[in-house]
Amino acid sequence: MRTFLTLLFATSFCLVQAQKTKPAFWLAKTTGKLPSLSYGLGEDRLGGTKIGYIESNVLLKVIDSTKDLYAVQLSKYHSAYIEKAYVKPDSTTKLKPFYLTSSFLAKGDTLYDLVQIRMEENLPYKSWMEIEPARIMVDLYGVQTNTNWITQLKTLKEVKNLYYNQVEDDVVRVTIELKHQQHWGYSIGYKGKSLVVQVRRQPVMPDLKKMVIAIDAGHGGNNSGAESSKYHVVEKEATLLFAKALEKNLKKLGVKKVVMTRNNDTSFDMKDRVLFLQQQNPDFLISLHLNSSANSNVQGVSTYYKHIGFRPLSQALLKQMLTLKLEEFGNVGNFNFTLNAPTDFPNALLEIAFLSNPEDEKKIMDPKFRLDVAKKVTLGIQDWIKTLH
């Protein structure tokens, strides 16, 4: 009995010691192609609900893991998840009890307004758009403010006001008020120890002939998309036909430049499409797809957006598409689609009709319908541009 108790005590002691020595967290840095943070473990066919893309080389405090994800502590009351493939251990950085922000600078160059937020470390952040009034919001995690100096230069053309609030002990919220109601996009990332928000300016005289328009023909190559059951129309082939019809119609109007993510049946990774589009820097993006449902009675047209500031474009497209006597499937927000995720430029996804519905399928196969769709999308774009002020 004494031997058993001695062994039990020794085992318990070892377990306690192991728990004491097991680290509560470890440090890492983001890495790879467009890493993104997610709110939780929920998923749909497009993945989990994303907070947004985040820069590479951002310091993370890893506190737990699942099979494919790491849980990271952003601040005392905020956590997130990130795919393991986008995390690399960091054994050189020593975590400080807290980090400080310092001076802010807002200025304009020849193309953009730039908001620079000085930081002690490249820490996680979240950004989003608000409307009425139009604002870009940024939460900085794991920081306390020591910002007593916010400089705004007269070279600014889109940023109206810049200020912050310490909303939690270790969360600083930055507000960037805009002059125009329509969000025209922004990019966010670190340059050295400054988090820089590059704000796009709305064109002074919005004119299609002076714009660069990107068109994405959904799917392609080894990603076929949906297929109709009766005539076996393949989505990747049909979307390319619709995209080329739209390209031709826009060029007829004298659009400055049309950027196509693909011109043939080629494989193009979704994140690579985002990176390609960021390099091309279009004024806005239209992504074309065809819908499908297990219920063949479901039909109609729908448009999709993720960021509330880009909703007006999707609404204008849907309004014009409905004049083709298509059923309305709706205008869908916060959509978890890769090409809706960038904040860099306005974007909208158009699901033209349902391949799985017999009536819609006949329309999709009709060359005249493709021309009609191109004209209606163009009119929707023009209607949206008319609202800019």
Give me a quick take on this structure:
The chain is α/β, with parallel strands linked by helices.
Explain what the structure shows.
This protein is of the alpha/beta class. It has three domains: 22-89, SH3 type barrels, CATH 2.30.30.40; 99-200, Immunoglobulin-like; 208-386, Zn-dependent exopeptidases (Aminopeptidase). 23% of the residues lie in helices and 35% in strands. It has helices spanning 2-21, 235-252, 270-280, 311-321, 358-365, 367-386; strands at residues 26-30, 36-38, 50-53, 59-65, 69-75, 78-83, 87-89, 99-108, 112-119, 125-130, 135-141, 143-145, 150-152, 159-168, 171-178, 186-191, 194-200, 212-217, 257-260, 284-291, 301-304, 328-332, 347-354. The strands form five sheets. Strands 8, 9, 12, 13, 16 and 17 form a six-stranded mixed β-sheet that branches. A hairpin with a 3-residue loop joins strand 8 (99-108) and strand 9. 37% of the residues are buried. Mean pLDDT is 94; it is low at 1-20.
Task: State the main characteristics.
single chain; 389 residues; alpha/beta; SH3 type barrels; Immunoglobulin-like; Aminopeptidase; six-stranded mixed β-sheet; 6 helices; 23 strands; 23% helix; globular; disordered N terminus
Helix-strand blueprint:
Elements: H1 2-21, E1 26-30, E2 36-38, E3 50-53, E4 59-65, E5 69-75, E6 78-83, E7 87-89, E8 99-108, E9 112-119, E10 125-130, E11 135-141, E12 143-145, E13 150-152, E14 159-168, E15 171-178, E16 186-191, E17 194-200, E18 212-217, H2 235-252, E19 257-260, H3 270-280, E20 284-291, E21 301-304, H4 311-321, E22 328-332, E23 347-354, H5 358-365, H6 367-386
Parallel strand pairs: 8-12, 8-13, 18-19, 18-20, 20-23, 21-22
Antiparallel strand pairs: 1-4, 1-7, 2-3, 4-5, 5-6, 8-9, 9-17, 10-11, 11-15, 14-15, 16-17, 21-23
Helix pairs in contact: 2-6, 4-6
